[in-house]
Structure formats: structure tokens, C-alpha cells
Amino acid sequence: METKLSIKINNKIYTTIIGKNILNKVSKYANFKNDILNIIIIDSKVYKNHKNYINKIFKNKNSKKIIFNSSEKSKSFESYYKIIKKIFYFKPDRKTKIIIIGGGVLGDLGGFIASTLLRGLDLILIPTTLLSQVDSSIGGKNGINFYSGKNLIGTFYQPKLVLIDISFLNTLSKRQIKSGYSEIVKHAVIKNKKYFGWLEKNYNKVLNLDKKYILMAIIESIKIKSSIVMKDEKENLISKNSRALLNFGHTIGHALEASNKYKNNLTHGEAISLGMVCALKISNKLKYISNKKIDKIIGHLKNAKLPTNIESINLNNLKRFIIQDKKNFSNKINFIVLKDIGNSSIEKNIPFAKLNKFYLK
Ligand SMILES: NC(=O)c1ccc[n+]([C@@H]2O[C@H](COP(=O)([O-])OP(=O)(O)OC[C@H]3O[C@@H](n4cnc5c(N)ncnc54)[C@H](O)[C@@H]3O)[C@@H](O)[C@H]2O)c1
Ligand SMILES: [Zn+2]
Q1: What is the domain extent for residue 219?
Q2: Is-contact 38 99, C-beta < 8 A?
């Protein structure tokens, strides 16, 4: 049985379904028709590991597959061009549906393609990494990277359906599972203390993909993320419920990814784990949160075997990426701080020098 969540954004509602072995539900929920072209863009590793499962569902002659080799480096303008060239070969029209089966990289790239092709085609997201199931498939942000920073080109574009099938996770590496877990911790610490307590108790079961626990974590994370997005789809920096809160750990995390040239030796979740530790340290120096509480969160990241050592991080080396962050205006930084476990807020208009001072202090 699948769990169904309705997400309402600006008076438009779409459905997210979550369960195990539920790929066969896609046709019913996405309302497939025999005379409408479905373009399915699939991550090559996912296709290799789940070929029979996918082919069983997408077998009619109007289902055209594009297999894509994704990595953070491939979230680029070159990939956008390569994929749309392939899509045009299939002669899409305004009724064509774009179906993405892959992680956050392909989801972000494919979402941008769907939102721009013929001025917007129906998008169906089938996320296959833990990170994309708990975070990137929800909320309608898409985009590609530019050399000067992460996700600098993109749109807000809500999908018609998100189908989360945890059976895909069985072939995901432990490292990628931990990477997704980093965003789960983020959701808990910015919004829900009780959830953080639950994670402290049950993180091993979540990381081991124990069905009951992984489903609970995915559902709880989606509820937190969607409740924030529903109030502020386009990140208007309204103080209390701004979507920007979801960016906790991302100002520095994204800068780490960009300065590392999006290489695979640092996953998004790993960068965010380090970015959260930096943000916790800054929140503590700003006297918002006690040592004891930040140690509790960092201890949890360590237990989950996520990277937490920030000694070698020098904000001066990351300055140009930090300044380029999309939350900022006029070279002043808007930074997400933690006031308590489960309570985050935006610290607005911080000059870089001040941020750096609190980081060094
Ligand atoms: N749009 C948003 O709101 C949002 C939110 C958070 C993160 N993101 C973005 O998400 C991206 C990271 O996503 P990700 O961590 O899913 O990375 P990813 O898409 O690169 O996937 C990680 C690796 O796992 C492989 N893979 C995917 N599914 C698999 C499966 N089921 N079995 C085996 N291997 C599989 C991929 O080929 C890749 O090598 C970043 O670019 C980040 O910026 C976007
Ligand atoms: Zn993220």
C-alpha cells in the first residue's frame, strides 16, 4: 500500500506517493494515455540495476527512453543541450510528459528541461536516491550549475506527480545513503526537535533501510519540507517561515562543492554536513545556541559517519562562492542560523567580514 500526500502550492495540488514496489502505480496516478508521448530520462546506474523493473512498466511504443550518465559535474548547460537534442528527435508536443528516474542531479536537470521545453511540459519525478526522495524531488526547484556557483540557472516548476519507490534504494551505495541522511538531519534540526530525537534513536535502522523506519523518515522529511515550501514557494525571505530555512548548511556547503569543481570526492550531502557544522559554529558564536546543543547535533552527524571536520575550511577561500549565493542581495549575506534544535531563522544582511569573524572566533 502506498502513502499519498497532497502538496498544495499556490492553489495547485499535486500528489506524492510513497511505498515499496509501487512503480506500477505510475500510469494510474500520472494519467498515462496511449496516444501521448512519454519521454523517460533515466540515470544510467539506475537503468543498469533496475532495467527489468523499469521496462516492465514503460513498455508501450509511446515510451521513449533516454539513458543519462549523471554526476554533479553533469548538471550543466552541455547536458541540457545534449538531452533536449535527443528529446526533439522524438518530436514532442505540448502533451508530451517528461518522466525522470534518477537522483537529485537528474531531477534538477530534468526538471529544468521540462519547465523550459515548449514552455513547459508535464513533469513526473521518480527519485531513486535517498537524497532525492527526502528532499530534491519535493518543492519544485530545478536547475543546473555554473562555474561560478551551484544551481545558478533554473526555475521553480512543480511536478504533476512524485512517485517515491524505496525499492530503488537497495542498489544505492552506503555513501550515497549517508549523503541523503544529511538532508534528513537538516530537516529535523531546522523544524522538528521530536524528529531529531527519533533519529537519534533510530538512525541505524534508517541507514540500513529497514522498511518501516526508512518510510517513516521519508514521510516526515517530506512533510517538513512541503510545509515550508507551501508557505513560500519562491523563497521570498519572509522571516519566520521562509523557504530559505531549508538552506541551512547550504551557503557554505554549496561553496565547498563549487570550489571543489563538483568532483565526486565530495557528495552534496557530505558538503551539507560540513556546511551545517560551520553554520552551527557560527550560530553558537552569535550566541544563539549553546555548545551543548551544537555538540549534540555534530555528535549525531558523526554517529551517522558523515564528515564533520571543518578545521581545514577557510571561508576566505570560499568567499566568491559565498557572495554569489542566491539568497544574498547587494553583496550582503543572508545566512541560516540555528536558535535551538528544531528552531532556525534567517540572519539577514551580514557582511562577509562579520561572518568570517564569527567563524574564526
Ligand atoms: N531541487 C532541490 O530542491 C534540491 C534539494 C537538495 C539537493 N538538490 C540537488 O540534488 C543533487 C544531489 O542529488 P543526489 O545525491 O541524488 O545525487 P545524484 O543524482 O548524483 O546520485 C548520486 C549517485 O547515485 C547514483 N544512483 C542514483 N540512483 C541510484 C540507485 N537507485 N542505485 C544505484 N545508484 C544510484 C547516481 O548515478 C549517482 O552516481 C545536487 O545537485 C543538489 O544540488 C536539489
Ligand atoms: Zn541540499
Answers
A1: 174-360
A2: yes
